[in-house]
Task: structure prediction
Amino acid sequence: MEQPALLVVDVQKGLDEPWLGKRNNPDAESNIALLLSEWRNRGLPVVHIQHCSKEPDSPLRPELPGNAFKAEARPLPKEKRFQKSVNSAFIGTGLAEYLHERRISSLVIVGMTTSHCVSATARTASDLGFSVTVISNATAAFECTGHDGVNYSAEDVHNINLVSLNGEFCTIRSTEEMLKRFA
Amino acid sequence: MEQPALLVVDVQKGLDEPWLGKRNNPDAESNIALLLSEWRNRGLPVVHIQHCSKEPDSPLRPELPGNAFKAEARPLPKEKRFQKSVNSAFIGTGLAEYLHERRISSLVIVGMTTSHCVSATARTASDLGFSVTVISNATAAFECTGHDGVNYSAEDVHNINLVSLNGEFCTIRSTEEMLKRFA
Result:
């Protein structure tokens, strides 16, 4: 098995704001912590992505406490971080060049949210030629209301975003399946 | 209202292959034809994207009849075309540079499929700073089966991909709503 980098996307305190609505998969953060621990124990590369929003209402603006990493995903000093202000971690960051320079061609993506930054990042990664795995239960989504006025549950948004990536942009695996591949 | 370009993504014959499964919104092509007609009548910019797959099993490989544009979306000789082999029309094509040179900052996206190339293209367009509208009933999706073995209907895949774009990456409008804005 190639040695993939773990890409940890937007695991930040501001995404706990109640007005964001109902979220699925409360275990996402603990699964991310498990995967981070495995990557660190094996000395594999870890890259952290931090959303620094320019939107007036975002809890992820750089000057707000919500911009901080959650405890489960706090970077070690030696681990690489990129900051972004859009959804895909590849746009405006130099992430692709960083990975190419280190001959990293395989990425395992975790973080928030399934439908926005995780999906956008996985799609760009695949289109740029990286081999991508997204960990189904190490990401999560929020409920949302469509242009049609219909409310879609967080679980449906999560599942259908994963199925839309599966096969076309990436492989979907659970945390347990991923850890077994190292065993 | 700014004068947006109509970006017509992958309206190609190969997507009628029965093995692709059940599709929603059989009216997508006729709505695309309506919008193309309006854009042409008003002399607004139209850009066509043609998928030229490198995948062995794809009906959109350049040497196959399925690579051809459908009648409803056939480019006029004077209209710009870009060919791509990945999902986002912005990766590897020079599309962003083409639009910037012409000072086009607003895009209306139609075509196939909601969950793959339309979503990927809308996401990249927004992340690159374009103002984006996706036309809900001028795109369509296929049913798909997830990593979890669950089958998701084409309509659910379509709707949840649109709601995942809405507000974050673009505005969603119907063909009728879009045409009314010109009236």
In short: The two ends of chain B are 12 Å apart (CA to CA). The first helix of chain B runs from residue 28 to 41. The mean pLDDT of chain B is 97. The domain at 5-182 of chain B is CATH 3.40.50.850 (Rossmann fold).
